[in-house]
Amino acid sequence: MFNPRFLVVSLGNPLPKYESLHSAGHFALHGLAKILRQPPFSEATLGRQKCLVSHGPKYTLVQSPTLMNVSGPFVARIWQEMARQTDPASLSLVIVHDELEKDLGVVRLTPWDRSPRGHNGIKSVKKSLSQEKYPQSPFARIAVGIGRPDARDAATVSKYVLAKISGEQRRVLEDTAPLDIARRLVELEDEWRAQAEP
C-alpha cells in the first residue's frame, strides 16, 4: 500500500529577527499549515537543532532555524532522520524558498535538478544532500516569487531581499501563496503515485 509522506522544509533567515522577503519560504510555510489543517507550529529538536515543526499524518512542515546560506547540513540531518524512520520509497523532500525571478506570491514547482541560479540556500542543500543516494524518494523545490528591483546589481538586490517585509507583502506570502503551494504538493503526489503504482 502506497502511503506517501512529505518532509516540507522552508529556507530563510531565522524569524522574527530577519522578517524580510528572503524568508518568504518561512512565511508561506506558516500559512500552509493552516491550509493543510496541520497542528500549530511548536518547538522541537530535529537534526540536533531546535526548530519550529508542524507534524501531521502526511506532512511534516519544518522551518529551517539556520541562516539561509548554511541551511544544507540541517536539511540533510532531518532528512536522514526521517528516512531512517520511514521507508524512503514513501517519503518525499520538498524545499520551499524565495524566488527573485517571479512576481510576489507566484508559486512554481521546480525540478530538483534545475540550476540554483545563484540561490545560496539551494546550493547549500544540494551540497549537503545527494538525491542519488535516495533514488526512490522524489525531491522537489517549490519557489515562491518575491519580485525583484529594477536594478540588477548585487548590492541593490541584497538590500531588496533583506529589507523589512511590509504588511501587504507578508499577507500575500502567508495568505495567498500557500493555496498554490498546497496545489503543487497535490500535483507532486499525483505524479509520484502514477510512477509508484503501475
Structural description of this entry:
The protein has a seven-stranded mixed sheet with strand order 2-3-4-1-5-7-6. The radius of gyration is 16 Å and the shape is globular. The longest helix is centred in the C-terminal third of the chain and has 30 residues, at 167-196. A hairpin with a 2-residue loop joins strand 2 (42-46) and strand 3 (49-55). Helix content is 37%, strand content 22%. It starts with a strand and ends with a helix. It is of the alpha/beta class. InterPro entries: Pept_tRNA_hydro, Pept_tRNA_hydro_CS, Pept_tRNA_hydro_sf.
List the helices and strands and how they pair.
Layout: E1 5-10, H1 24-35, E2 42-46, E3 49-55, E4 59-63, H2 72-85, E5 91-99, E6 107-111, H3 120-128, E7 139-145, H4 154-162, H5 167-196
Parallel strand pairs: 1-4, 1-5, 5-7
Antiparallel strand pairs: 2-3, 3-4, 6-7
Helix pairs in contact: 1-5, 2-3
Beta-strand content estimate? 15-25%
Total helices: the number is: 5
Detail the poorly predicted runs: none
- Could you give the order of the helices and strands? EHEEEHEEHEHH
Please state the structural category: alpha/beta
Which structural traits does this protein have?
22% strand; 5 helices; 198 residues; globular; single chain
